[in-house]
Structures are given as structure tokens and as C-alpha cells.
Amino acid sequence: MGEAESAKFWMRVLSDLQERGVQDILICCIDNLSGFVEAVNAVYPETDVQLCLIDQLGNSLKFVSWQDRKAVAKDLRKVYSGVDEQAALVDLDRFAANWGKGYRPIVKSWRKNWPQLATMFNYTAGIRTMI
């Protein structure tokens, strides 16, 4: 979309949307670009921000040796596919206990980004009760 997709760039895009009449955004799924969450919150303070799980997984797995990759990915899947946020946090603690010593940056990243990774649980509970 732009020459440099910086937080400043996205702030301009969001401000332009606002000037064109977009009054609110319910949920915004974004990559983990530094400052992007703050840009969304500055223009649309009521918007729920969800970090892209695909990006989070990709960034996590780049730290993993090939021999562990399948098992680590399987254990991370338990975290983001939990029935609710509490179950997901339990699975994140299990992941940290099993893999944290060897892959500390993964655990650190998931914990740091958790507020925006867990946004989806605000929306999935109603979907599960309808199925």
C-alpha cells in the first residue's frame, strides 16, 4: 500500500479513513509493527486490536530448530485455539513449562503480546454457543 508501512504511515491511513467518514472500527487485525496498536488506538480508541496469529506464529517458529518445529507448533496451537482466554492462558503456561527453557523468546513474545493476541476470545464465546 505504501512505500514504507510504518506506524506513521498507518496513522495517516487511519486518519484519512476517519476524515472520509469512518466513525468507528469494531475490530482491527494487524501485524506486530512497532507503534501500530498505538496508531489504531489514537484514531479509534474504542477499537479492539487483534494481532495476526499467522504473523505471531511465524515469528515464533523462526526461533525453533527443525527437529522441534512440529511439536512446538502443535503446543502453540493449543494456546490460540483454547475454548476461552483462561484455558488459553493455562495452555500458555504449559507451553512455557515445556519449551520456555529452550525457547525463551517465544514465551516472552506471547506474554508481551497477549493483550492483543487474546482479543479474539471476546468474540469466539458467542460463536461456540451458536454451533
Give the strand tally. 2
Distance between the termini: 37 Å
Count the DSSP helices: 7
- Shape by Cα distribution: elongated
The structural class is mainly alpha
Order of helices and strands: HEHEHHHHH
Would you tell me the overall average pLDDT?
90
Low-confidence stretches: none
Question: What percent of residues adopt helix (DSSP H or I)?
Answer: 55-70%
Rounded to the nearest angstrom, the radius of gyration is: 17 Å
Strand order of the largest sheet: 1-2
| Biggest sheet details | 2 strands, parallel
Question: Could you explain how this protein is built, in words?
Answer:
The protein is mainly alpha-helical and 131 residues long. Helix content is 64%, strand content 6%. The protein contains 7 helices and 2 strands; from the N terminus they run H-E-H-E-H-H-H-H-H. Strands 1-2 form a two-stranded parallel sheet. Helix 1 runs parallel beside helix 2 and helix 5 runs antiparallel to helix 6 (104-117). It is elongated, with a radius of gyration of 17 Å.
Write the layout of secondary structure elements.
Layout: H1 7-19, E1 27-30, H2 36-43, E2 48-51, H3 53-61, H4 66-80, H5 85-99, H6 104-117, H7 121-130
Parallel strand pairs: 1-2
Helix pairs in contact: 1-2, 3-6, 4-5, 5-6
